[in-house]
């Protein structure tokens, strides 16, 4: 099942930096993760490769019984109970998704290493998932500066 495979692939990546260090050695603060799925709103784009980021967020939200009905910083938004994970689907269309994702990261004071962005990469074969800790935007306007 796709949902189970996705979580298995993401779990090791998340656990590496789940607890952030604090100034006090006896206390460590848990900092949230922001998962942003890129796509375009509307029926025209549903179930297309271009909306794989939306599909990933929907699959994770469904597996955790999270409703993505709250509109926060131009994104459909939800939180995972008990775990500091924020899920977002920017509703700005993919090329302007930084308006939403950047505002969410700034509002929650998240460093970039706590933001995970899921999107289609036309340089990869369909169905291939690549996780990388950092990188450029390539040819994807939704990730450009």
TrEMBL record:
Pfam families assigned: Pept_tRNA_hydro
UniProt cross-references to Gene3D superfamilies, sorted A to Z: Peptidyl-tRNA hydrolase
Transmembrane segment boundaries: none
An example molecular function term from Gene Ontology annotations: peptidyl-tRNA hydrolase activity
UniProt-listed PROSITE patterns: PEPT_TRNA_HYDROL_1
InterPro entries documented for this protein: Pept_tRNA_hydro (IPR001328), Pept_tRNA_hydro_CS (IPR018171), Pept_tRNA_hydro_sf (IPR036416)
Protein name (Swiss-Prot/TrEMBL): Peptidyl-tRNA hydrolase, mitochondrial
Natural source organism: Aegilops tauschii subsp. strangulata (Goatgrass)
